[in-house]
């Protein structure tokens, strides 16, 4: 417990978290500080490009590990499974409608890539480098949860549901293509490729991440200010319980897979995090009746800050205890 | 100059639905349209602004079609299929156009 | 399809006044509006363009409201308070809308 | 409130022609216009979108002029010289304006 | 004098100035070279983030100096005072209306952060590092001048004036929040934080500044080309006299405060520079009758280039003489 | 031949090419991956700024070479001449109308700066640094081809043709101004200036180029998907023959000029590449009747990928044989 607190304090005073908090504070104070939409998109392209490439290069540097395939499989299964757990919890803890509950559940099966990046950065800072292929696991966990959510609805309420176009949009959405593509190119060009572009993707990485988290804080804060009213007590609590439930699942499976400490912590983080890009987009198309204020505010306004501040250091500490030494 | 009667249909819709809408427009025989960006707005589902979005799901666009009056009904019926369940606003106005052979 | 008469009010105003205008619109019972970006323009106070600006003060937007005709007068009076002293243009046009219950 | 009749002319034209068009508008005595960005569209020369462009040649804008009705013909003739050979759409609609002294 | 000329020549041939001049020249030649609005905003976010953070980190590195509070106070007072001097000069030297004169005066009390950054860069290049807290002084000098300008008008002409919303907008405008926020975070995380993001905020800083000044040159040049006609001879001369008046005030107060050579030079630069972001925004809201062509062209087209080319090397040379060894 | 293949394989597996291929693939798979327009423009500003500055600094570092003037002259002449060759080939090989053929021909006389940058990067990677002034040669080759194309049309079909405004737009277009301006500033500030901004324009350069080529792949792929139908067999083949014709011309002239291996390879690349920015813009104004789907798709969808993948390693190998040792 003492260690967790020390880790948490250390984490809370890192520039990354402080810039996120600055963003939250500026939003609540109604400052007009904003990032241009194009700059925010450019930063997220940069982060996906860098994290994918470094993951791929690291996989070849360390040799391809037997765990790769199993981890991908486990990731896909968890992504598909977690929405059912989330849905059951939501039906018990909240009064959300079937459709809203299913939509929210889908977000929690999927993942938040920035949470993943923040955790990776914290791990690298502590010398706990995770398996490079966790990037691919992150990518594969984006989509299955959406199918589970739509299945939950179609069983009960209909919904305009899935069609071929939507399936293609989900599987080939820009983030997945960029992440997987950079991962593969990192793998193909290996250390030699990494060397060529290291001063672009390694050196300035943390600085860009600070600015990105500042923007996330602004967006999350504005979301909470405007849509916080849609979250009643039960929903609010769900947003902090569910990541822990996910993290425990991730811990168990991560240990069974025999991942390193860093790998287990990342796997916990993936299971604990909730999507706010790919899944909302799919939900707007397939479940337009579900209220985006609920699922976006929950995922971005509650669970994201929770993971960033309390979750990540906890997951790292727990992973160190169970997978370490 | 010689002008001709036409209808200007403006559909404000979520960006994520844009492709689906324009596919349907093309299916309904619309020969042209333009897409304008929308920075923000407010309606029954609350206020939003483009700079406060991380999500691809968010943001709206205006799809503008200039059409011959006789095509209006077909177009509206086609459009209605898409906008019915989704948020969005449809307006129709009378306009005059140059070079009517284009529509 | 069944359409209904409405008014389309377009207010071109400095971006810096946007929030003040939409607050007033909401006060005047307007249920919805959309904001379009303006890239540049020209008027009595000269020409400007968005890319030639360093200043937050500069740049304009279009605020578009679709409203029931009976609300027009209230809206214009409210709007006039804001645009009177500021540069900007206000136009009103007749349109038809689908789904009139929304306005 | 007191409003006045005016015409709203919207010219959708390639961005590269914008300066030439507004020069001609000014020559034709137009006292003001606004430029809106266009994200994409489709017409007889195919579909395009602003994000799929590397070229300065591509992309379109909407030039909007609010003018006194009596100026319409002069304006259209001037505009026609530019749009005749180029792709683009011109629409004219009736509007009411506040503060007519501005136009 | 010889030294000043040498410094000025050196300054004039630095990439920073040359890119600014390239921008001016391109604008006058009516080239279509432009920066996308989002890129210009992103660069200014980067500059504020970097300068704020480095300032904060430098304050802790050197220990908190008793001069901090006094300098902040002095900065706020000068910002409030300078508009009165500027206003008096304008009434004597020009035929501007009360409202236009008050609006212009407000700009000269406030500051231009890019001029500040250019001076800091020149100082660091000469080994004359200023006090880190000068960043906070810059931030505090942004707003008071606006209140003075509005007071000048309200006393005479009315104007729609100040309201609660406007006050919040001024005090919490994006630049101030980002600058002060980064300064605080730099202070909290200190050298350890700086090390993490140094390769983002230190190494590429001058390169970004070159591009930013290129854009400023384009904007200033276009402004001069289109609105130069609004500036008659008196106004034009004011734009080059007023910075010198401000600089002298800054020199005296800076010496009284016991600042280092770099600190005095920066203080002079702050007093000499004129705002072209925060103040114009406030003036459009509060004094819509004032002509923006006058105050923007004056501040951005005359005073900014004047300070960048002639002012800064002069202030550094003068500060070296009076505050040096 | 063996060497060419080895070079080509090496080239094909570099991150630059792989990211371009990723973009192509994503476009063909209809992924929604896109770069914001502002980010794409910002990257191209960065590339022009960096390549121009480095070229200028390198010219002074190596002393001004007698070849400079001759190379500029030769470049301008080739740019004006190549359209006639291209036009003749097009009339023989394809059924394009006079106007379309002239418009296409103009593109091949002019140059693609990204192809130039990709070749420079490959050369530097092999220790074959080209003459710094090749940047100026690239800039001078942009425009003459346009005049030739318009002359070809006016002789036959009329066209709205050239006017003073258009001439100014062509000669002072943003890319040329930025490239030449940065080149001059690099020359004036020399190594000292380069040192100040090296960590901005040297270190991250290849990383930015990867992202830029990813975007180019997306754009080229979408162009091919939508407008590939406008290219019949003859036109298609022209798009791969013409660069070879240009390259041979470049080889001969480059050898006559006595350029280094790197210089000859770059000169070949310039002659082989086709414009997709400056020339299309001029054609839309002066020849609105010419079909942009043909010239853009040909230049960006066929010739650009051809040069990037097969052309550049070939030109380098050939230059090494003829100009080397
Ligand atoms: N009356 C209106 N006038 C103009 N735009 C509107 C109006 N109502 C809604 N909108 C636009 O449509 C979006 C969705 O509206 P709603 O479906 O009412 O939430 C809003 O955010 C606005 O951008
Ligand atoms: N007649 C007009 N038609 C369209 N837009 C106009 C017109 N007059 C003014 N505007 C817009 O309103 C802005 C301010 O106009 P003004 O107050 O006349 O300087 C201009 O820069 C244009 O963007
Ligand atoms: N009927 C139409 N309604 C609205 N915009 C149109 C229409 N036709 C053409 N446009 C716009 O004008 C551009 C050029 O049209 P075109 O000359 O038909 O290729 C299109 O890409 C659209 O942006
Ligand atoms: Na999850
Ligand atoms: Na000042
Ligand atoms: Na060429």
From TrEMBL, chains A, E, F:
<keyword id="KW-0472">Membrane</keyword>
<feature type="transmembrane region" description="Helical">
    <location>
        <begin position="235"/>
        <end position="257"/>
    </location>
</feature>
<feature type="transmembrane region" description="Helical">
    <location>
        <begin position="43"/>
        <end position="62"/>
    </location>
</feature>
<feature type="transmembrane region" description="Helical">
    <location>
        <begin position="12"/>
        <end position="31"/>
    </location>
</feature>
<feature type="transmembrane region" description="Helical">
    <location>
        <begin position="263"/>
        <end position="283"/>
    </location>
</feature>
<feature type="transmembrane region" description="Helical">
    <location>
        <begin position="102"/>
        <end position="123"/>
    </location>
</feature>
<protein>
    <recommendedName>
        <fullName>Sodium-dependent bicarbonate transport family permease</fullName>
    </recommendedName>
</protein>
<dbReference type="InterPro" id="IPR010293">
    <property type="entry name" value="Sbt_1"/>
</dbReference>
<feature type="transmembrane region" description="Helical">
    <location>
        <begin position="135"/>
        <end position="154"/>
    </location>
</feature>
<keyword id="KW-0812">Transmembrane</keyword>
<keyword id="KW-1133">Transmembrane helix</keyword>
<feature type="transmembrane region" description="Helical">
    <location>
        <begin position="68"/>
        <end position="90"/>
    </location>
</feature>
<feature type="transmembrane region" description="Helical">
    <location>
        <begin position="166"/>
        <end position="185"/>
    </location>
</feature>
<dbReference type="Pfam" id="PF05982">
    <property type="entry name" value="Sbt_1"/>
</dbReference>
<feature type="transmembrane region" description="Helical">
    <location>
        <begin position="197"/>
        <end position="214"/>
    </location>
</feature>
<feature type="transmembrane region" description="Helical">
    <location>
        <begin position="295"/>
        <end position="323"/>
    </location>
</feature>
UniProtKB/TrEMBL annotation, chains B, C, D:
<dbReference type="GO" id="GO:0030234">
    <property type="term" value="F:enzyme regulator activity"/>
</dbReference>
<protein>
    <recommendedName>
        <fullName>Nitrogen regulatory protein P-II</fullName>
    </recommendedName>
</protein>
<dbReference type="Pfam" id="PF00543">
    <property type="entry name" value="P-II"/>
</dbReference>
<dbReference type="InterPro" id="IPR002187">
    <property type="entry name" value="N-reg_PII"/>
</dbReference>
<dbReference type="InterPro" id="IPR015867">
    <property type="entry name" value="N-reg_PII/ATP_PRibTrfase_C"/>
</dbReference>
<dbReference type="InterPro" id="IPR011322">
    <property type="entry name" value="N-reg_PII-like_a/b"/>
</dbReference>
<dbReference type="GO" id="GO:0006808">
    <property type="term" value="P:regulation of nitrogen utilization"/>
</dbReference>
């Amino acid at each position: 417990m003492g260690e967790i607190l020390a880790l948490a304090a250390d984490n809370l005073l890192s520039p990354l978290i402080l810039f996120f908090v600055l963003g939250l504070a500026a939003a609540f104070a109604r400052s007009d500080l904003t990032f241009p939409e194009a700059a925010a998109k450019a930063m997220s392209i940069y982060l996906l490009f860098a994290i994918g490439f470094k993951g791929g290069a690291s996989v070849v540097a360390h040799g391809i590990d037997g765990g790769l395939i199993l981890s991908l499989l486990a990731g896909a299964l968890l992504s598909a499974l977690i929405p059912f757990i989330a849905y059951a919890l939501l039906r018990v803890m909240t009064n959300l409608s079937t459709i809203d509950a299913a939509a929210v559940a889908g977000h929690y099966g999927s993942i938040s890539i920035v949470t993943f990046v923040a955790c990776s950065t914290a791990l690298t800072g502590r010398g706990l480098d995770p398996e490079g292929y966790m990037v691919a696991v992150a990518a594969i966990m984006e989509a299955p949860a959406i199918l589970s959510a739509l299945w939950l609805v179609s069983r009960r309420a209909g919904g305009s549901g899935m069609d071929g176009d939507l399936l293609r949009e989900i599987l080939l959405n820009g983030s997945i293509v960029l992440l997987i593509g950079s991962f593969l190119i990192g793998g193909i060009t290996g250390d030699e490729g990494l060397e060529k572009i290291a001063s672009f993707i390694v050196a300035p990485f943390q600085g860009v991440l600070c600015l990105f988290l500042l923007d996330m804080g602004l967006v999350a804060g504005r979301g909470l200010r405007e849509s916080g009213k849609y979250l009643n007590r039960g929903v609010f609590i769900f947003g902090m319980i569910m990541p822990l439930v996910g993290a425990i699942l991730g811990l168990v499976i991560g240990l069974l897979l025999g991942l390193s400490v860093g790998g287990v912590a990342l796997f916990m983080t993936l299971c604990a995090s909730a999507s706010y890009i790919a899944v909302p987009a799919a939900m707007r198309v397939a479940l337009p009746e579900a209220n985006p204020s609920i699922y976006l505010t929950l995922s971005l306004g509650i669970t994201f800050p929770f993971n960033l501040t309390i979750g990540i250091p906890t997951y790292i500490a727990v992973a160190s205890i169970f997978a370490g030494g | 100059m010689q002008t001709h009667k036409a209808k200007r249909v403006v559909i404000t819709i979520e960006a994520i639905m844009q492709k689906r809408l324009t596919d349907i427009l093309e299916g309904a025989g619309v020969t042209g349209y333009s897409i304008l960006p929308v920075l923000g707005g407010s309606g029954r589902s609350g206020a939003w602004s483009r700079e406060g979005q991380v999500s691809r799901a968010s943001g709206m666009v205006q799809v503008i079609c200039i059409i011959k009056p006789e095509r209006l009904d077909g177009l509206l019926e086609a459009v209605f299929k898409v906008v019915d369940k989704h948020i969005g606003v449809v307006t129709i106005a009378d306009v005059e156009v140059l070079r009517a052979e284009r529509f």
